[in-house]
Amino acid sequence: MKIHKVYFLFILFLVNNVFITITNSRGEVLFWKSIGYLKVKGLKKLTPSVTKVFINYLWAFKTFKFHIKLKGFNKFKKQIIKSLLLIFFRNILSLTDESLVPNNGCKLKKQRRL
User: Fold this and answer.
1) Signed CA dihedral, 55, 59, 61, 66: sign only
2) Which pLDDT belongs to residue 1?
């Protein structure tokens, strides 16, 4: 039986960019990239073709076992997750979404009437 090392794949979705970071169990960064690395500017960063090329950079890590953690919102988030599942189908141990969703906060103080 082979012993596989377990790594964490963090994907941070920003308004105009996507960051990918691969760390080991101690939190030491092994690899990181952003879509800006592909020399694409502005809204062209978020086109489906560019995101597929970006995900293909992870092909070298195909043999690793991953815990994937997602954070943030983006219109192509679903597509990026689908392409990750195609590449790492058997190597994904867990997939968690750590996006913070507001719950409208605390109740405002009652207004004083004069």
Assistant:
1) positive
2) 53
